[in-house]
Amino acid sequence: MTRTDVQRLYRLAGGRWWDAFRAQWEATWARKAVRDLDSLLRRYVTPQARVLDVGCGTGANLARLRRLGLPFGHYTGVDFSPSMLALARKRFGDPPGVTFRQGDATALEDTGERYDVIVSTYLLDHLSEPAAFVNGVQRFLEADGCLILLFYSQPRWFVRFWMSPIGRIVRAAPVSDREVSKFANVRAKKSYSAGVVTVVDIG
Question: Can you give the pTM of this predicted structure?
Answer without folding.
Answer: 0.88
